[in-house]
């Protein structure tokens, strides 16, 4: 729940920034000189990129959460079996051991979105965020292509 609140607050702050920057871009366009119009267009591009980025990430998170909910209903969410340091950090050797099992599981069933989801969690636990994201994107793609149940 805390993560959702943090995400929503961050998104609201970003939207406020996009509106503020967009209004400044429009103001520069209204000035009408070559330099202000050029700067105004440049300023307007930044909020557009930011809005796209925010939308893409929100969509990704929503789809990943949908998979997590479905996997939880099936009883297939990965169990937290990681050893932690006294400070609460994940022990690297423990994360590597779980990752090796998840990787092998995914290699045995490369078309199962559930395996890719669990692999994404293992990548995240091993602090490899780019690969975690790619594995989750693969899980989402496989899930969305699955045949409808009769």
Automatic annotation (TrEMBL):
Keywords: Membrane, Transmembrane, Transmembrane helix
Transmembrane segments: 7-27, 33-56
Xref: SUPFAM superfamilies: TPR-like (SSF48452)
InterPro entries, per the entry: TPR-like_helical_dom_sf (IPR011990)
Taxonomic superkingdom: Bacteria
Record has Membrane as a keyword: yes
Protein name: Tetratricopeptide repeat protein
Originating organism: Streptomyces hundungensis
